[in-house]
Amino acid sequence: MRTIDDFPYDVRTIENVFIPMRDGARLAARLWIPVEAESTPLPAVLEYIPYRKRDNSRGRDSLNHPYIAGHGYVSVRVDLRGSGDSDGLLLDEYCSQEQDDAEDVIAWLAQQPYCDGNVGMMGISWGGFNSLQVAARRPPALGAIISASATDDLYVDNMHYMGGALLSDNLSEATVMFAFNSLPPDPEIVGDRWRDMWLDRLSGSGLWLENWLGHQRRDEYWQHASVSEDYSAIDCPVMAVGGWADGYTNAIFRLMEHLDVPRRGLIGPWGHKYPHLGVPGPTIGFLQEVVRWFDHWLKGQDTGIMDEPMLRVWMQDSITPRSSYSERPGRWVGEPEWPSDRLRPWRLRLSEGRLSPTESTESAMDAAPEAGDSAGAADEDPSDELSTELTLQSPLSVGLFAGKWASYAAAPDLPFDQREEDGGALVFDTEPLEEDVEICGRGECSFLVSADRPNALLAVRLSDVFPDGEATRVTYGILNLTHRDGSEEPEALEPGRKYRITIPLNGIAQVFPAGHRMRLSVSTSYWPLVWPSPAPAAVTFHPEQCTLELPVRPPRREDERLRDFGDAEAAPELETTDLETGDHQWRVIRDLATDVSTLEIINDQGAFRLDETGTTIRRRTDEWYRFRWNEVNSVQGETSTLRRMERGSWGIEVQTRTVLTSTVENFHIAAELDAFELNGDLGYQRIYSQNWNKEIPRDHL
Question: Which of 169, 272, 378, 404 has a CA that sits 20 to 30 A from residue 637's CA?
């Protein structure tokens, strides 16, 4: 990444401004203001997140906001209510209060003498979510947004549930917010009231995991902030951004399809990072794209960005399986609209161990889409009975090498060689491909199945199999079979009854080279990526009525003429001093004496000092996902966090621990919070402690 410190506009920084809300509360903001804006007002760009502008996000903010301001924008970073240096409590994600406050912030910005009345909004993850949500409220001054690594549907594609199954990321994200919500504001910003504010947060923010587990179906709790409920509510231009190694790319396809506003989609090889910081690479000049987007929509300049394809994606080349990559080889391709009428469905039929095209690849590219089977119970026609049935009940160990639902650090949280998983799955291979096959978009599996229990789970994986047998997972899908007809009203299976089900695969753009095989692997467990069913379930497949359909995209010469994004640029990095080396480990441990297997994730970020503020920060998060042999109710997720901040005689430390277990009927949460304050020669003394023990009934999960 190239750092830039010579911008078209000189910039001054205001460390903190308190923005008044309609109820009298104040939100803390950091501003980067072009000097010229004092005499000639300019548009503003807002990033609005709970991740602490004063310390935790300071490094990333220092790369992004001076760059945006240096190109002629008032760039603004605001802490959500109850986070960082802002007043109040943060009680959950994406609450109505959060969106009310955002409208107040935007209105306040538009009225400032240095702002010309036009405001843009951008963010990644939480900031990408609320950019969409606030856009749906149509504040008058909001002219355009950029939403990165976010979703339009809080239940369908989020870190909580996937295909109606519980993701382990639900626990890890709850742990992240448990730690954040337990931290105080900075005394240098809020003054002597910092300690009272801290105690209010410790006692009042709550245990979010309880909220999220209390809503196991797609009910109003998830719907209220899901813009997919009414895409027409958004009336400003939208740029949606994501990466194949992230968990949020499916939403980009839906936004391109359903929004009725000027829009652009961008998907690279990255994990949960902005594209100029993305891993795996290659990174791109994303901040240049940010400036082009807002120049077009907030300044009325013709930057040419709307003359380019609606959707640009990184077509990934084949690569051997690794748990981390510095870069993914490939090339950029573009589609002028989405859905694209230039893609053709390629249907393959499952038979015992085989994945066979129903037609040649060449003819598939010219074929019209075939009507798919609808979900629900299959007709009980005697002709449906086939001579070959395949029954599967996977070991719990299938999933230990699946990686994270979303790659947050990208080292080493990507899926490993799928041969580690395939021994506990049904495997269907093509013959070696006679020519390259390129897919782009979302495939889907259609199965005719029955189960021996009321609740069952299926995980499907599509892999690129090398001639030597190595298998790289390309994409996957999950379905809790009680959600086969939707997640609003799940319904138990009738044991032994046949059901036609559809399992969508996550979107991807991928080349399968000639000489390689495609492999579809199906399992009844995928722990710890998803929580297992309440009892071991055997699922029977009628494979000759089971298909895989993939969106084939022929290569096009016009892709070679796409504009280059340029090298990644940013403002100079924040100056820090490393004090203690960190450690990042991902270990699979199998104890043959006890039959206990553990996935251990150590994310120790060490200790460092922010030289600007003199604040020393210590951060560590550990996760353990355990199970004993094939006992589904032995599974356990455990997380712990340590956060410490010190400056001079001031110091605080917060420790959290959360353990999630289950029985056939219930989930059980045990959580602990301990907060400590530095007290002179006495050292750290505990000033707050709380324990939680909660039972939550399982709801078709």
Answer: 272
Rounded to whole angstroms, how far apart are CA atoms 147 and 165?
26
d(CA 88, CA 81) in angstroms, rounded, equals 6
Residue 592's SS3 state is coil
Query: 534, 698 in Cβ contact below 8 A?
Result: yes
Report helix, strand or coil for 228: helix
Three-state secondary structure along 583-601?
Answer: EEEEEEEEECCCCEEEEEE
Structure-block tokens of residue 182: 């337990």
Phi-psi region of 658 (alpha: psi -120 to 50; beta: other; left: phi over 0): beta
Helix, strand or coil, per DSSP, at residue 213: helix
Residue 299 and residue 143 in contact, taking contact as beta carbons nearer than 8 Å = no
Above 80 in pLDDT, residue 380?
Answer: no
Number of Cβ within 10 Å of residue 586's Cβ equals 20
Cα separation, 510 vs 512, whole angstroms = 7
| pTM for this entry | 0.95
b/e burial code for range 74-113 (CB count within 10 A of at least 16 → b) = bbbbbbbbbbbbbbbbbbebbbebbbbbbbbbbbbbbebe
Cα torsion 455, 226, 399, 640: sign: negative
The two structure tokens encoding residue 132 = 């969409």
Quick one: which of 555, 554, 508, 557 has its CA closest to 366? Answer: 554
Q: Give the whole-angstrom CA distance, residue 515 versus residue 603.
A: 39
Residues 213 and 209: their CA atoms lie apart, in Å, by 6
In DSSP notation, 144-194 reads EEEEES--S-TTTTSSSEETTEEBTHHHHHHHHHHHHHTPPPPHHHHGGGH
CA distance 366 to 442: 18
> pLDDT by residue (tens digit) across 134-188?
999 999 999 999 999 999 999 999 999 999 999 999 999 999 999 999 999 999 9
Assign 383 to helix, strand or coil: helix
Q: Which amino acid is at 219?
A: D
120 SS3 class: strand
Pick the closest to residue 588 from 548, 632, 623 (CA basis): 623
Please tell me the distance from the alpha carbon of residue 529 to that of residue 167, in angstroms, as a whole number.
6
pLDDT tens digits, 78-135: 999 999 999 999 999 999 999 999 999 999 999 999 999 999 999 999 999 999 999 9
CB 34 within 8 A of CB 70: yes
3-state secondary structure 236-257: CCEEEEEECCCCCCHHHHHHHH
Q: Tokens 């997972």 label which residue?
A: 473
Relative to beta strand 636-647, strand 650-662 is: antiparallel
Residue that has been written with the tokens 């339009």 in this structure: 152
Residues in the chain: 701
Tokens 């990095």 appear where? 573
Q: Distance between CA 282 and CA 269 in Å, rounded? A: 7
618 Cα distance to chain centroid: 25
- Helix/strand/coil for 35: helix
